[in-house]
Amino acid sequence: MSEEKEKIVEAPGCLTAEPDLEGYELVYEKPHTFTDVPMHYCPGCGHSTAHKILGEVIQELGIQNNIIGVAPVGCSVFAYDYLDIDWQEAAHGRATAVATGIKRIRPENYVFTYQGDGDLAAIGTAETIHCINRGENVTIIFINNGVYGMTSGQMAPTSLAGMKTTTSPYGRDIKTMGSPIKVSELIANLPGAFYVTRQAVHTANYVRKAKKAIMNGLRYQKLGLGTSFIEIVSNCPSNWKMTPLQTIDFINNEMLHYYPLGDVKLPSKEALDALAEIEKGEKK
Ligand SMILES: Cc1ncc(C[n+]2csc(CCOP(=O)(O)OP(=O)(O)O)c2C)c(N)n1
Ligand code: SF4
Ligand SMILES: [Mg+2]
């Protein structure tokens, strides 16, 4: 091992230590909004990337002390351990109802939920639809990995046709199990949906776009014109029984055919002009 490499490896020791970066150009660092708690996610899991961009957005918007997250039940149940912001844990599926209450009593705070597909689109379908139908001024981050990750891979509403899960061992049969739900397209029809977009985090380019979408979804709370919904097509190497690299191919070749990426519903030009005025005022 070269002397330079040794320097990097030795310096951290644990996640809290500051590495000696003298003589190096800093090209990447952990968001300052992160805690030092090591993440429990499986290697290659999209949740950790989604957390990272969320942490970066909160840092860049300078709202760490002014944002409240609502954590789900699912693999991301410990999101509150990883991002150093105010959090409230919600029962499985109830995050949007909890977020509604928080935002209504603390309208000055940014409020978001972070939920999986089992949480948001199965047990929490009613809460999700009614929250968005009411046009609650919150941001919903929806991680679609096509499976119940935490409970060992049962079929989710978003599991693809033919997808083998522990509760569809022969593959999802559309005839008896219904079609995978395109949640973004479904909820975009609700008048309260202000901004709806589908993104992904399995390649660097998509990560950048997803980050921008989260940033916009939070910024739009300044307008109070409805709910922002950011779906992130993600992976679950453990329950898909694939290596992280294989999941990238699966997302590209299978998931994105059924769940095309891009904006599903955009704010009007008038709304964006109004936001530009607000943000100009904030800079003064
Ligand atoms: C009321 C209730 N019902 C069921 C469960 C069991 N449960 C825990 S996590 C989970 C599914 C999680 O899947 P998802 O929301 O897709 O999140 P992922 O783990 O895939 O990120 C279920 C059914 C629970 N904890 N509480
Ligand atoms: S089980 Fe799946 S969703 Fe959960 S942490 Fe592991 S890879 Fe991620
Ligand atoms: Mg899931």
Q: What does this molecule look like?
A:
By secondary structure, this protein is an alpha/beta fold. It has a single domain (39-283), classed as Rossmann fold (3-Layer(aba) Sandwich). The protein has helices at 3-10, 46-61, 79-82, 95-105, 117-123, 125-134, 174-177, 183-188, 204-219, 237-240, 244-258, 269-283, and strands at 67-71, 86-89, 110-116, 139-144, 147-148, 154-155, 193-200, 227-233, 262-265. It has a seven-stranded mixed beta sheet with strand order 2-1-3-4-8-7-9, sandwiched between helices. Strands 5-6 form a two-stranded antiparallel ribbon. Helix 2 (46-61) packs across helix 9 (204-219). The longest helix has 16 residues, at 46-61. Mean pLDDT is 94; it is low at 1-14. Thiamine diphosphate binds next to helix 5 and strand 5.
Shape: globular
Mean pLDDT: 94
CATH superfamily heading: Thiamin diphosphate (ThDP)-binding fold, Pyr/PP domains
Instruction: State the end-to-end distance.
Output: 52 Å
> Strand order within the widest sheet?
2-1-3-4-8-7-9
Rg, rounded, reads: 19 Å
**Major beta sheet summary:** 7 strands, mixed
Structural class: alpha/beta
Tell me what the CATH architecture is: 3-Layer(aba) Sandwich
Bound molecules: thiamine diphosphate, iron/sulfur cluster, magnesium ion
Number of helices: 12
CATH domain class name: Alpha Beta
What's the number of extended β-strand segments? 9
CATH topology: Rossmann fold
Task: Tell me the series of helices and strands, N- to C-terminal.
Answer: HHEHEHEHHEEEHHEHEHHEH
Number of domains: 1
> Which residues form runs of ≥5 with pLDDT under 50?
1-14
How much helicity do the residues have? 40-55%
